[in-house]
């Protein structure tokens, strides 16, 4: 139906046409199909007569959320709207193109998905699926998903369309002058993600005129092999009279540029009408869409960041429980903050992609992986590589991952390939192929290449293009199998030169059992990069390794003018000098002044001569109390209180390290949550930061938390203090409901309430403590948990 | 766009900040302005069509057959930055939150100036928003619809919270005669019983 070489004409705006046809202000466009179907048919007919090959049925807002308020069903509206459009296709006598088709039009749900809003991803998929099923039943010829600004919502709609129909699917998003959508999605990320998920054509609609959209269209053209769609506004609207500033002729002229740039599916959005489509048709009908230069470089992305594998890109290996006791504990306890912290450290250390492995006995991986993916995507922009052999876990993780992920891994075993590749294909991920198979580890470079070729053939037979396959040539321990290091490096070189695929290596394996492991690991990394390695999996917190990569980027020419290299090392010299000056600062001062680094260093010194508990009781708590008292007296302010708390956190980390694992210094557990319907969580986060540094173990249930979840966690964790936050009068009922449910427990916990709209009287009325601020929360906890 | 740093400090409860806090706040303000530009949109409506309930709206718009509804937002990028910063450094996160609040207000000022420029010779009322006085929050969906807030990516949840978080909707009446101040001051404020500034013997100066 769509082609990169042949033009397809879409229609123009519906809303303005309805008003022109006599729709009264206040009359709902969603109901026109039921009340005045002939009005729709007449509009569609005008577009077909102006040259549209495809008309969008009037179903843009036909979702459950909107329609249930109007007392009609999605199916009723969709059936009637598509019927009205089909009628126009059948009886347009003067049409230019024979056989106009009808698209089911799917717009945004009008409510933002998590984490930007509160709508869960699967709830969105479910709402879209209902529309798609109705559209299929009504006989739509294709599905259009349009005016999306959140890549995650576009994904939800596209997944729903693919899972519930075999119809072609067009997806267009709305961008602004910054080249991003309102939610920050880039054109490259949009193109990679939607192409991967199996859209049939992608592009832009609404928000701007054709001129402003041209750079964005070019970017999309370069990042997908699919036909590209442009359905811009008739320029920009005037706020006073709502009039758009481009004439049909100007619009058509600007669109001709888009066609020359390679756009092949064209129409208009707000402010356009059949005159615009007619002018457009006239102007470009004899044009052939311009030749496009499409990047074939491997890439992964999140909505806001694309990582192209056109040089060495670091995959951080730290999110993995293997051999890490603290990480294992965090996983078993569901301690997301610890895992998020691992991600942040690696991002700050220069990782480009994060490997995510949450497989551990006792962890339900298929539930944990999507949860961790969601948490990580809130805290970091980096693309993720989902590391699992469990297909259910991979599918669950890929489904919620916003962007284009990588999967680690498949191997040459046919059974593994058959199990994992369909999932990789469905969600449009890149995948790592390990050069081993059911017969075991290969011995030579030749064997590795043979397996790599087999994996490549299998991937291509599943419709996975070669830039989406990365080959891992396997690092073996050189002290145990010395000849294998050579074989690995040879294989890396040959995969690079003969197969032209990116290569992955877990580098640190090389040095097990040897002294001076860092030297061995770095030397191997350097040789592997020289052989063509693009994706080393390493601990980016090891400066040595990152230094070697910085040097490599100079030698490879990627670091133009050695700029990054010079910055890295010229600036590194300065802080190195600082600790030389002996400081007379005490640990208490460091905490009070919020100096994290100093506090950590001084705690390390102090722990040599006293126990962790002594440090907490004699230094840490008094220091925090001093800041707390200053805060209350108006001598210190919230940022200082929090800086001190964060310095204390660093001290806590040192103490915990010295005491081994466990929570011996923790005082008691407190659950905190922002209530259902409330998405403002800064107050709750402040309380969490301050309280946890007084030694309380904070179980943070997040924001928009249903009462049931809070009750369930209270029982499970057996806590006696729950803190609830609400910011708006509209969410106070949810707070009351939570208090009511908690009070029904056999042993109700004490509760403290806070937030902008909570007053002492209100809290007292509900039989709860009033937490004026974070400091007050600490006092309440002291009184209750002591 | 000028940021009202005094106001940001007030949100932080820091009327007499030390040099370190001021330096940190100023640097963060610069970063905020380089990373994010407030977006706004507005539309002209018939005041009668808006049908705003309550005395505040009635009093404010008494002389205004037409009103402009404006919406301003720092966008989802601010929310994302805020989440990421909250995971890294809460002290800076609260500073960013305070700066975000004054930044979106500055965006509203810019929107108001744009409106003013389109109506030479007319007089605008004070800007007011749902939640002020007796203007209920449940007019929010209507206001967003009327301003075309979808064009700048602003939506409202079932619990009437706007997303992205740093978003403001407001109404400005357009009159032929000069309009007295009718919103500013504690007498008009719904929070005048519980306000922490009043308790401390001060005002928020709004």
What can you tell me about this protein's structure?
The complex is a heterodimer of chains A (786) and B (206). With 786 residues, chain A is α/β, with parallel strands linked by helices. Chain A is 48% helix and 13% strand. Chain A is built from 30 helices and 24 strands. In chain A, strand 16 (430-434), helix 17 and strand 17 (469-472) form a beta-alpha-beta unit. Chain B has helices spanning 5-11, 19-35, 47-50, 55-60, 75-88, 90-118, 140-147, 196-199, and strands at 39-46, 66-73, 123-124, 155-156, 162-163, 167-175. In chain B, the strands form two sheets. Chain B has a four-stranded antiparallel beta sheet with strand order 1-2-6-3, sandwiched between helices. A two-stranded antiparallel ribbon of chain B has the order 4-5. The radius of gyration of chain B is 18 Å and the shape is globular.
Quick take:
The complex is a heterodimer of chains A (786) and B (206). By secondary structure, chain A is α/β, with parallel strands linked by helices. Chain A has 30 helices and 24 strands.
Which structural class matches the secondary elements of chain B? alpha+beta
- What is the CATH T-level topology of the largest domain in chain A? TIM Barrel
**Overall mean pLDDT of chain B:** 89
Number of strands of chain B: 6
Uncertain stretches of 5 or more adjacent residues of chain B = none
Show unreliable segments of chain A.
575-581
List keywords for this structure.
heterodimer; A: about 775 residues; alpha/beta; TIM Barrel; Methyltransferase, Methionine Synthase (B12-binding Domains), Chain A, domain 1; 4 domains; 30 helices; 24 strands; B: about 210 residues; alpha+beta; 8 helices
């Amino acid at each position: 139906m769509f082609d990169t070489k042949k033009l397809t004409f879409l229609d123009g705006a519906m809303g303005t046409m309805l008003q022109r046809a006599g729709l009264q202000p206040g009359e709902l466009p969603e109901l026109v199909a039921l009340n005045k179907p002939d009005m729709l048919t007449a509009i569609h007919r005008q577009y077909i007569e102006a040259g549209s090959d495809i008309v969008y049925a009037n179903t843009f807002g036909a979702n459950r959320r909107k329609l249930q308020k109007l007392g009609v069903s999605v199916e009723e509206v969709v059936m009637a709207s598509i019927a009205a459009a089909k009628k126009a296709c059948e009886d347009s006598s003067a049409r230019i193109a024979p056989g106009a088709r009808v698209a089911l039009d799917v717009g945004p749900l009008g409510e933002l998905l998590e984490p930007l809003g509160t709508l869960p991803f699967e709830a969105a998929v479910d709402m879209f699926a209902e529309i798609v099923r109705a559209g299929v039943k009504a006989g739509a010829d294709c599905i259009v998903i349009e005016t999306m600004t959140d890549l995650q919502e576009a994904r939800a709609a596209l997944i729903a369309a693919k899972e519930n129909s075999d119809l072609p699917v067009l997806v267009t998003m709305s961008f602004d002058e910054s080249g991003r959508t309102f939610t920050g999605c880039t054109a490259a990320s949009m193109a990679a993600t939607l192409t991967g998920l199996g859209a049939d054509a992608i592009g832009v609609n609404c928000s701007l005129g054709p001129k402003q959209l041209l750079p964005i269209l070019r970017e999309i053209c370069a990042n997908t092999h699919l036909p590209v769609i442009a359905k811009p506004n008739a320029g920009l609207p005037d706020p006073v009279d709502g009039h758009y500033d481009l004439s049909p002729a100007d619009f058509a002229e600007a669109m001709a540029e888009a066609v020359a740039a390679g756009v092949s599916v064209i129409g208009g959005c707000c402010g356009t009408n059949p005159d615009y489509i007619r002018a457009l048709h006239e102007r470009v009908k004899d044009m052939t869409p311009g030749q496009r230069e499409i990047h074939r470089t491997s890439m992964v992305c999140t909505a806001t960041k694309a990582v192209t594998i056109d040089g060495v890109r670091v995959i951080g290996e730290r999110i993995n429980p293997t051999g890490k006791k603290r990480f294992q504990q965090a996983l078993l306890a569901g301690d997301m903050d610890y895992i998020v912290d691992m991600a942040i450290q690696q991002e700050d250390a220069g990782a480009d992609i994060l490997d995510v492995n949450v497989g551990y006995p006792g962890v339900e991986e298929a539930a944990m992986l999507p949860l961790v993916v969601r948490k990580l995507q809130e805290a970091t922009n980096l693309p993720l590589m989902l590391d699992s052999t469990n297909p259910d876990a991979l599918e669950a993780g890929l489904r919620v991952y916003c962007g284009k992920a990588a999967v680690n891994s498949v191997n040459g075993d046919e059974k593994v390939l058959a199990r994992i590749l369909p999932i990789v294909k469905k969600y449009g991920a890149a995948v790592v192929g390990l050069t081993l198979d059911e017969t075991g580890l290969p011995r030579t470079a030749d064997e590795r290449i043979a397996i790599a070729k087999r994996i490549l053939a299998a991937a291509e037979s599943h419709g996975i293009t070669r830039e989406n396959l990365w080959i891992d040539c396997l690092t073996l321990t050189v002290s145990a199998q010395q000849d294998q290091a050579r074989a690995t490096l040879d294989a890396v070189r040959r995969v690079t030169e003969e197969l032209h695929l990116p290569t992955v290596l877990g580098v640190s394996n090389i040095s097990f059992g040897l002294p001076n492991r860092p030297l061995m690991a770095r030397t191997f990394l350097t040789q592997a990069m020289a052989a063509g390695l693009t994706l080393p999996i390493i601990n980016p917190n090891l400066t040595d390794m990152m230094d070697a990569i910085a040097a490599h980027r100079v030698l490879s020419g990627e670091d133009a003018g050695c700029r990054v290299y010079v910055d890295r090392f010229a600036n590194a010299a300065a802080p190195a000098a600082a600790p030389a000056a002996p400081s007379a600062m005490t640990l208490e001062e460091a905490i009070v002044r919020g100096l994290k680094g100093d506090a950590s260093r001084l705690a390390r010194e102090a722990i040599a001569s006293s126990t962790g508990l002594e440090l907490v009781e004699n230094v840490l708590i008094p220091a925090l109390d001093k800041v707390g008292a200053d805060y209350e007296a108006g001598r210190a302010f919230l940022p200082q209180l929090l800086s001190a708390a964060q310095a204390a956190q660093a001290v806590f980390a040192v103490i915990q390290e010295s005491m081994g694992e466990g929570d011996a210094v923790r005082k008691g557990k407190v659950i905190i949550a922002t209530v259902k319907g409330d998405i403002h969580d800064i107050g709750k986060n402040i309380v969490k930061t301050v309280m946890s540094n007084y030694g309380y173990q904070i179980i943070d249930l997040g924001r928009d938390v249903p009462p049931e979840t809070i009750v369930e966690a209270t029982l499970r964790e057996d806590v006696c203090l729950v803190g609830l936050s609400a910011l708006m009068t509209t969410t106070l009922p949810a707070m009351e409901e939570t208090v009511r449910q908690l009070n029904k427990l056999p042993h109700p916990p004490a509760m403290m309430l806070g937030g902008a709209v909570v007053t002492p009287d209100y809290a007292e009325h509900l039989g709860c403590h009033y937490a004026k601020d974070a400091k007050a929360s600490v006092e309440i906890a002291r009184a209750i948990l002591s | 766009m000028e940021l009202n740093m005094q106001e940001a400090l007030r949100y932080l409860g820091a009327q007499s900040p030390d040099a370190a806090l001021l330096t940190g706040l100023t640097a963060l303000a610069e970063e905020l302005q380089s990373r994010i530009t407030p977006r706004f949109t507005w539309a002209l409506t018939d005041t009668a069509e808006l049908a705003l309930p309550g005395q505040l709206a009635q009093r404010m718009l008494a002389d205004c057959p037409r009103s402009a509804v404006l919406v301003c937002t720092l966008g989802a990028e601010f929310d994302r930055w805020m989440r990421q910063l909250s995971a890294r450094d809460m002290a800076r996160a609260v500073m960013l939150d305070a700066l975000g609040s004054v930044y979106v207000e500055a965006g509203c000022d810019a929107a108001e100036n744009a409106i003013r420029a389109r109506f030479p010779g007319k007089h605008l009322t004070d800007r007011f928003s749902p939640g002020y006085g007796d203007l209920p929050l449940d007019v929010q969906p209507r206001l967003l619809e009327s301003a075309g807030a979808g064009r700048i990516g602003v939506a409202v949840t079932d619990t009437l919270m706007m997303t992205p978080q740093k978003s403001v909707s407001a109404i400005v009446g357009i009159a032929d005669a000069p309009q007295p101040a009718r919103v500013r001051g504690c007498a008009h404020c719904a929070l005048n019983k519980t306000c922490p500034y009043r308790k401390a013997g001060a005002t928020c100066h709004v």
